[in-house]
Write a structure and sequence with these properties.
It contains 20 helices and 26 strands. It is an alpha/beta fold. Strand 8 and strand 9 form a beta hairpin. The chain binds 1-deoxynojirimycin. One of its GO terms (biological process) is cellulose catabolic process.
Length: 792
């Protein structure tokens, strides 16, 4: 009863009696129950599909205190954090578990007498948002398209260096939630692709990069934030509930976060929506259970901004820090500790978890003060751009995917006469809106307003603030000037004037997306008509698509005059230079599609649209389970336009000599144990055995073409048992650059996790006994070699 009293006192006013009778009138018993219930009982799951634990959030209490036992570095950080917290009063502890108004997007409370400063939090995943003298990096989806771990790391490191230089303690990224379940998801572009393995590689590498720079990384949004529509509580009712079964939760959605945790991520942001009927920031199964127990998380869970939905319930379910203000905590949390609704240990654990990463990243020794300004303040500018423009250009090119190239259209051979068409070629040139401005209020966040110009990022907190933007038009002008050629352009017309003498016509279109809404369509008629109109007279029409996710191309891709097409992603501030380096062949393309491009929108079936229910308690049932994107297309034998992992090169490659073997560790024992050893302690990232390399696959790749180039070799696994996806990506490597005729051996390391399924009964990762099929090739459908691995 005490507990319920404490919980009730922390409900928002709209849920309890008192101030506003109108608010009181909307109080519904069911709402109160749903707010309280995450902390007290099994959530109801009636009427949900018959999949293991589908729609259920079993209660997991008490909240496991962080132990610092992952490794010596965490132990030292915990010793220091515990020492500080032991000297703090309840009020001081409460003070650091909440956001306060300040100069950063989020600011924690400070404890000056103990030398604990306000920690500064800032967006976002592809560059510091809303600031000056910072870089605009490619978006997550673009980085994923590089299939290049080295670039992923260097991206994270450069990002981290900029956050560090600006005195920002906590970077709000990288993103693997949304993963990209629905094709029209508004924020899919922020994340590192809808394949959990590729996203995991990115999450791990970017997290390591950010934290090597001394900045706390915040993988987000945990978990299942797969649509924007009704992601939050509104007057219509509760946020959407993402209902998923236990196996899918582990193998698909939690999977990429594991890599970030393994690399030491110091924070995790919980998401807005409900997961299995319980708000993610008060879902004890997700926070206490999966994150803090199974995955041994040592750091702190921070709420998404204003995403806290209850006081006591969220504290006991494992939330450690509420942003950007006190929310339901503050004095109420102190009161809840005094009346026993929240234990002193729990509050202490929150504070320790917040201060441990601060020590883990050595931010307690010397950290620059936040250099965060508004343009109305006179200040000394702090420039953190360094030479990141070169890296941005490199990643921009490496994530550009060539999907069509006939008649040796590309690379260009010093063309003399180019025509450039379409609103996407230049900055903010719009046939619909008279906008040509960057700066002034919220437009400092470039992505909000750029959907009619070159798309270098997209909208919302994942957008960036470029110092400048090199448009494709600018870069093409530079090249044409060098070659003493000529250009003609028209950024506005849907049906530009023909120049039949042009060497090539470049048509620039885009597909915009943003946080807070989902995409209305994967294509638009204006752009499709523009391409067709140009192609009707220009025999060499090259289409460049900058897109915040999937863009279908069925209207024109087969047109004989469309000779080349590039998915140029969201490449950041050097967009034009990146693209030109691929067009002119300075860079031989290695970008690969990080999603499936269907022949028509309807091919995505139920995975096209978000749930748009107007029900007070909307539900999104993830009944497809593991089968999203290419797994869905493979399962239902649907031929895509361009499959996941696909991308062309200016040269060609041959694959040969696949061998698959267990590693020495596993072959010296007679067999691979089905389950990881129960007696081994869990560390951050999960059971250590999950990360052991248990098998190796080797093959050779040879450049069989006429020019230098690198290949992205991909490994897919078919897990025995008949209930897993036909094939799943479980390895990739950038091979080369190789000169013509050159051969190189590629080695793929397969970990226990890569080959395991989540056993919902035993509640553990399990190897399947039987024959695993191992496929190596150039995409998820261009499979060149096949081998086997037997687990007995
Ligand atoms: C809400 C977004 O969902 C989150 O990703 C972001 O970090 C915060 N706002 C802070 O801007």
């Amino acid at each position: 009863m005490e507990f319920l009293k404490g919980a009730y006192s922390m409900l928002p006013h709209k849920f309890r009696g008192g101030r506003d009778p109108a608010e009181q009138a909307v109080l519904s018993t069911k709402t109160v129950v749903s707010v309280l219930c995450a902390a007290c009982s099994l959530q109801e799951g009636a009427g949900v599909p018959d999949l293991p634990n589908h729609g259920l959030s079993p209660p997991v209490y008490p909240s496991p205190p962080g132990s610092g036992s992952t490794n010596g570095r965490w132990t030292t950080a915990y010793d220091r954090a515990r020492d500080l917290v032991s000297q703090m009063t309840v009020e001081e502890r409460v003070n650091i578990t909440q956001g306060w108004p300040g100069i950063c997007v989020g600011n924690t409370g400070e404890v000056p007498r103990l030398g604990i400063p306000a920690l500064c939090f800032a967006d976002g995943p592809s560059g510091i948002r809303g600031q000056e003298f910072v870089s605009a990096f490619p978006a997550g989806i673009h980085v994923a398209a590089t299939f290049d771990r080295d670039l992923m790391y260097r991206y994270g490191r450069a990002l981290g260096d900029e956050f560090h230089g600006k005195g920002i303690n906590v970077a709000l990224g990288p993103v693997a939630g949304p993963l990209g379940r629905v094709a029209k998801g508004g924020r899919n572009w922020e994340g590192l692709s809808n394949d959990p393995y590729l996203a995991g590689a990115g999450m791990g590498a970017v997290t390591r990069g950010i934290q090597d720079a001394g900045v706390i990384a915040t993988p987000k949004h945990w978990l299942l934030n797969e649509q924007e529509f009704r992601r939050r509580w509104t007057e219509l009712g509760d946020a959407v509930s993402a209902n998923v079964d236990d196996r899918t939760l582990h193998e698909l959605y939690a999977f990429p976060f594991m890599d970030a945790l393994r690399e030491g991520a110091g924070a995790v942001m919980c998401s807005y929506q409900r997961t299995n009927h319980s708000y993610a920031c008060q879902n004890s199964k997700l926070l206490n259970g999966v994150l803090k127990t199974e995955l041994g998380f040592e750091g702190f869970v921070v709420s998404d901004w204003d995403g806290q939905m209850s006081g006591v319930a969220s504290a006991n379910a494992g939330l450690d820090l509420v942003m950007p203000r006190a929310g339901f905590w503050g004095d109420n949390l102190a009161e809840a500790v005094r009346n026993g609704s929240v234990s002193e240990e729990r509050l202490g654990d929150m504070a320790i978890r917040i201060l441990a990463p601060w020590h883990y990243l050595h931010q307690h020794t010397a950290y620059p003060p936040p250099a965060i300004y508004t343009n109305t303040q006179k200040h000394f500018p702090v420039d953190v751009q360094a030479d990141h423009a070169r890296l941005i250009e490199e990643i921009g090119a490496a994530g550009t995917v060539l999907v069509k190239n006939v008649n040796n259209t590309l690379p260009f051979k010093k063309p003399k006469f180019l025509c450039v068409y379409g609103y996407g070629a230049a900055l903010k040139a719009s046939p619909w809106q008279n906008r040509d401005r960057y700066g002034g209020g919220y437009e400092d966040n470039f992505g909000w307003n750029t959907f009619n110009g070159t798309l270098i990022t997209a909208g919302g907190s994942g957008g960036s603030s470029p110092p400048y933007v090199v448009s494709p038009f600018q870069a093409l002008q530079e090249r044409v000037a060098q070659d003493r050629g000529i250009l003609r352009w028209d950024f506005y017309s849907e049906d530009p004037t023909p120049y039949v003498n042009a060497d090539a016509c470049l048509v620039f279109i885009n597909a915009y997306a943003s946080e807070s809404f989902d995409r209305p369509s994967l294509k638009d008629d204006f752009s499709d008509r523009l391409v067709l109109n140009v192609a009707s007279w220009c025999a060499n029409t090259i289409v460049v698509v900058h897109s915040a996710g999937i863009r279908t191309v069925d209207a024109w891709i087969a047109h004989p005059n469309v000779t080349a097409t590039l998915f140029a992603g969201l490449p950041g501030q050097e967009a034009g230079h990146s693209l030109a380096s691929v067009l002119y062949g300075d860079v031989n393309p290695t970008g690969r599609l990080p999603y499936t491009v269907a022949r028509s929108e309807s091919d995505y079936g139920d995975l096209l649209n978000p749930t748009t229910s107007s029900d007070p308690f909307p539900e999104a049932n993830f009944t497809e389970g593991l089968f999203i994107d290419y797994r869905y297309f493979d399962k239902h034998s649907i031929t895509p336009q361009f499959e996941f992992g696909f991308g062309l090169s200016y040269t060609s490659f041959a694959y040969a000599d696949l061998s698959v073997s267990k590693t020495t560790t596993t072959t010296t024992t007679t067999d691979l144990a089905e389950f990881p050893d129960k007696n081994v302690r869990i560390v951050q990232g999960g059971h250590p055995a999950l990360w052991e390399v248990v098998a190796l696959a080797k093959c050779t790749v040879t450049n069989t073409g006429a020019v230098d180039g690198a290949e992205i070799a991909q490994l897919y696994v078919s897990i025995p048992g008949g209930d897993s996806p036909v094939r799943q990506l479980r390895g990739f490597a950038k091979v080369g650059p190789l000169v013509p005729g050159q051969e190189r051996e590629v080695v793929f390391e397969l970990t226990r996790r890569d080959l395991s399924v989540w056993d919902v009964v035993v509640q553990d990762w399990r190897l399947r006994r039987g024959v695993y099929e191992i496929w190596v090739g150039a995409s998820s459908r261009d499979l060149r070699l096949k081998g086997e691995l037997e687990v007995r």
